[in-house]
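Reopening this one. Same input as before:
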Amino acid sequence: MESGGQSEIEIEQDKRGPKKVPKVFSFLESGLIRRTLVYTVSGSISALVAFFLLPVLTRFLSPYDFGVVETFTALTTCLSGIVLIGGNTILAKEYFDLNRVGQQRLIGQIILLVLCSAASISGVLYVVEWSNKALAHTFKIEEVVIYLAIVVAAANAVIALTTTLLQVQKKAIIYTLYVNAKTILELSISLSAIILLGFKWQGRLAGIMVSSLSFAVVGLFFLEPIIDQSVLDLRNAKRLAVLGLPLVAAHISVWIYGMVDRVMISNMFDMAATGVYSVGFRFATVVGMVETAFSVAWMPYFYENIRLNDRQVDERIVRMTFMYAAALLTFAVAFGWGSRWLITVMVDSRFSAARSFTFLLCMGFWFSGLWKLLGCYLIAAGNTKIYGLITSATAIFHIGLTLYLLRHIGIIGAAWATMLSFAVATITTFIIAARLRPMPWLSALKC
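Same output, byte for byte:
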């Protein structure tokens, strides 16, 4: 029988209330997916533009030039993390435990501490490099590249704080505009300098430096009202430093995974070999782009919810972790195999040997993505020291393994060492995190 245009079955369903979404898919009801999509699109624009410029760059830049650019990029990444002293992670972790006044005070104190750190570390590095040129000799690059790396690192630290603040405030659209405007400026200057003016690695570095400095200034204007309202409390600065120093150790350790192979290849082979390897690494960073986009959205969501100590919330977090791991693995395997064909089509034949490295490096980025998520559990439990210890120990393992494999199986040994080291770090972190911050890993799988 019909009643008001509804069948008896539909009326009965209305009485029982709305149909429940299975637990496995309950994460779709959160804003995490929406923010992840925004961050993925944002990160994709930046990463994919750089990715599809590889045919242009590998045509106008030699393997040596490409090696210099990749070495410079990796070096600035390391220095930026040292200058930050973990400020961006601390901000994401503590932001949701404070009221508005407390949040502004925390942000201001982190900014001032980072600016002091940038000034002091930059000064020390300038003196060290001026006196004996140790870094230039180690990385096999010109001295001016080291000086530029120090400047760009300080600028990137300010940019990182700006983007982290936008993340925790869930201003995804502003974040997207900020990040992609920087990318457009960087690539516009780089291509103009390389193609129109005939510069080589110098043109690419000019684009990176000008865009970083410009958007660091934009970031300071954005952060200025908070800085004006804040005073650097020395006691709280000490607390932030205690929390941040293990994260610096962790950052340097993670950086080692992406840089020590290039340093060793440059010294054991030559800079041209580093350039070829770096092209394979650049292809694999497409997987890194996906995992980074999710991590950017995941951090504020995770720290906001994990502190509730609610079993249902914990189950939802675990389910999302499992689904993310499976999705990223599928993508890493598919892109890893497909990249062998893409390299043949996209890059100059001088870089064709990069096909040998990409699948292993894609799998390495998969493990890296899992490691980032699992590391959040340790940080949430207040165990930044243990997290730093794990990353430091694994970095030592990575150095030894890379050296051994490079000597015995050649350049591809660096790719094997990267994948295996990230796998060891991921497994170790999971075992320790499961003990320090118990989660419903098994029960969360039930629908």
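So the earlier flakiness isn't reproducible anymore. For the record, The longest helix spans residues 271-306.
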